[in-house]
Amino acid sequence: MEPIEILLVEDNPGDVRLTREALRDSKLHNNLSVVEDGAEALAFLRREGSYSGAPRPDIILLDLNLPKLSGREVLQEIKKDESLRRIPVVILTTSDDEQDILASYDLYANCYITKPVDINRFVTIVKSIENFWFSIVKLPPVR
Amino acid sequence: MSAVMQLKESTRLIIDYGTAVLAALMAVLLSAVFWADIVNSQYIFVIMAVAFVAWFGGFLPGMVTAIISFMLVNYFLISESFTFNLNPADQLRTFFLWIVVFIISMALELRLRSVDALQASRDQLQAILQNVAEGVTVQAGDGKVMYVNRAATEMLGFKANDDMMDMTLSAIEQTFELCDESGSPMSFSDLPSRQALRSGQPARRTIQIGQKSGGSRRWLIMKSTPITDENNRASMVVNVLTDITERRQYEEDLMRLNGQLERASTRINNILTNVPGIIWEGSGEPGSDPGQNIDFVNGFAEKMLGYSVEEWMTTPNFWQKLVHPDDWKAAMIRAQEIFSQGNQGTIQFRCVAKDGHEVWVESHSTIILDNRGNPVGVCGAVMDVTERAKAAQDLARSADELRRSNEELQQFAYVASHDLQEPLRMVTSYLQLIEQRYSEKLDDDAREFIGYAVDGASRMKALINDLLAYSRVETRRTQFTLVDFHVVIDRVKTNLKLAIEESGTTFEVDDLPRLMADEGQMVQLFQNLISNAIKFRAEEPPKITIKATRQRGEWQFCVGDNGIGMEKQYLDRIFIIFQRLHSKGKYPGTGIGLAICKKVVERHGGRIWAESAPGQGTTFNFTLPNLMLKEKAAGNTNGTH
């Protein structure tokens, strides 16, 4: 079975590590790619520059506060792009600001999650994401 | 008139000629009776009759008498009686007699004519004197009144001319009261008539005279001219009286008006000099080619803008010199608009004073119209509003700053929700990771330390969240809807389910209204109050009563508990942010909850206060304005669309 391709767009190495830790014990075989800003995220998705050999992710975990291009802008670009818009985008952010939540859904985010403080809850959430999107949800066929 | 005169004339003719005939008959009769005695003067009676008739009737009646008497005497009395024949001696005598009676009649005719003429001219003179506007009186040398004309009679307050005739000096003094020109009483001996009689020289004086018994008093100019006899003594005096009462009245009115005018003009001048604004008047159209010329400006103009009144009034198109070049065009467009509409208007612009400093002014102008309604000029007041303009600018600047600071606050709230929490999460998460991953390598102390660190971090998170909630009460957009407070309480109960169950809290909820409010904030408000009541409970399980009563224009809510209560002096402090009454160990919390409550209530236009005593529980009261009717209608309209 092919590993699940996950793209994490996150500029905080601490969060990257936590996500990695949470996914380490996963039942599903996964391959986590990490980019640190919005511009890189789009380059990765469009296989531009050094990302020419990048895999097409099965799911994108997108932070909102990012250097260069913000998470909102990245989301907008993804949902505008016909070849990318079917990839589920999970907004994973510290913000619980109402405006952020509304704006994300208005830009067709697939779901919005506020990162919890408690490590155990964080691990649970990451596992839930994996479980929900890859065991429960029927995703559109690729190509 | 002429008919009457003709009648008079014919009556006179009848009388004259009747008398002529009668006188002739009488003369003949007398001659007949005394014929023997008057041998040498047979015609004496005839001559007397002719003279008598001619005295009264003139030449022709005299001649008629003569003819009749001569004929009768000749026929009856002269020898050869009963014939008209005369002897030559008688013929000669008769001829002379005819000459005599002719001359007598002629002479008497002339006399009669001169008497008539004299009478006519006397009548004329009398009529003139009676009808002149001047009063005329004549007094004799002893002061007795000899003549009064109508005008004098009226001036002196009498009805008929005769009322004054023959008045003596003492009668005059008893009848009249006198004042001199200045209005003070005057002696009769100072009257010009007396002076003229005394000195024999003309005299004149202005007097006020009236009768003691009342009636009007008149102002008269009295001119007295004496008439002197051959010894140069005044035998009488002619007084001419000119009534100047009306003239005096006019003069007095004029003087009073002049006084009023002077006072008014002094007052206006005072006002104009002291009013703290420029008052001006100009002719011509503003902004037209020759421009407007200033016809008048008050003294304050120099104080306010430095240019002298002279400069204002002599510089053509002075406004252009005065108005700030940047404001000139706009001000002129507005001024022309006001001018062409011929009404009033206010313009704000800047002026440049003579020393160069800028003055904000407000110009109120009224257009002057000619009698056909065409605008011909402008008058107005120009006030210095620099301070007001500056205050308005300051206000606008503060509003700008406030808006900016509000935006910054929102920005801060966002940063807090995001960037402050991330490092906190790192601390907590990695401490927990250490605790889990290296559990067997840590001793109890290490685990305890980690526990404190995690607790601290989570308290900090709570603090940040509460601060965020506090700041969002104001920055949140207004979204009032019709809120059912039973629904609000139910939602709070759901949110606090665990705490309610654990503490065994019971509720007693009265009928609650439905009001226009921000529902989310109402939940926040009740949740904070209810969780407070649960948190600060006494030994027995909490019992919370919720009531609402209608007041004038608002609803008052009461949320009461049976908790530990508090000292009266703390009742105000509890609503201040970060104010806590208890240690964190005993009653955890951030000290923001009630501050949020206060802010929510105030944002809704209400008040909040608490009543409590230690051990007696606490009641929180707050009011919400009853916006229901108006806002509900608006809400319904929105709902149907």
What does this structure look like?
The complex is a heterodimer of chains A (143) and B (641). Chain A has 143 residues and is α/β, with parallel strands linked by helices. Chain A has helices spanning 13-24, 38-45, 71-80, 98-106, 119-136, and strands at residues 4-9, 30-35, 59-62, 89-93, 111-114. In chain A, helix 4 links the parallel strand 4 and strand 5. In chain A, helix 1 crosses helix 5 (119-136) and helix 2 (38-45) packs parallel to helix 3 (71-80). The longest helix of chain A has 18 residues, at 119-136. The radius of gyration of chain A is 14 Å and the shape is globular. Chain B is an alpha+beta fold. The longest helix of chain B has 44 residues, at 88-131. Chain B is rod-shaped and about 215 Å long. Chain B starts with a helix and ends with a helix. Residues 629-641 of chain B have low confidence and may be disordered.
Topology summary:
The complex is a heterodimer of chains A (143) and B (641).
Chain A: E1 4-9, H1 13-24, E2 30-35, H2 38-45, E3 59-62, H3 71-80, E4 89-93, H4 98-106, E5 111-114, H5 119-136
Parallel strand pairs in A: 1-2, 1-3, 3-4, 4-5
Helix pairs in contact in A: 1-5, 2-3
Chain B: H1 2-33, H2 44-57, H3 59-77, H4 88-131, E1 135-140, E2 145-148, H5 150-155, H6 169-175, E3 176-179, H7 192-199, E4 203-211, E5 214-228, E6 234-243, H8 245-274, E7 278-283, E8 293-297, H9 300-305, H10 309-314, H11 318-322, H12 325-341, E9 344-352, E10 358-369, E11 375-384, H13 386-418, H14 421-437, H15 444-475, E12 481-484, H16 485-495, H17 497-503, E13 506-509, E14 514-517, H18 519-535, E15 543-551, E16 554-560, H19 593-603, E17 608-612, E18 618-625, H20 628-640
The fraction of residues in strands of chain A falls at 15-25%
Shape descriptor of chain B = rod-shaped
Structural class of chain B: alpha+beta
Query: What's the assembly state of these chains?
Result: heterodimer
The most extensive interface, with participating residues per chain, is: A-B, 19 and 18 residues
Instruction: Count all strands of chain A and give the number.
Output: 5
Helix content of chain B: 40-55%
Give me the side-by-side strand order of the main sheet of chain A: 2-1-3-4-5
Task: Give me the secondary-structure category of chain A.
Answer: alpha/beta
**Model regions low in confidence, pLDDT < 50 over at least 5 residues of chain A:** none
**What proportion of the residues of chain B form beta strands (DSSP E)?**
15-25%
What are the low-pLDDT stretches of chain B, counting only 5+ consecutive residues below 50? 629-641
Query: SSE order of chain A, as H and E?
Result: EHEHEHEHEH
Mean pLDDT of chain B: 86
Radius of gyration of chain B (CA) equals 64 Å
- Rg result of chain A: 14 Å
Helical proportion of chain A, percent range: 25-40%
**How many angstroms separate the termini of chain A?**
19 Å
Q: Please state how the strands of the largest beta sheet of chain B are arranged side by side.
A: 2-1-6-5-4-3
| Mean residue pLDDT of chain A | 89
Characterize the biggest β-sheet of chain B.
6 strands, antiparallel
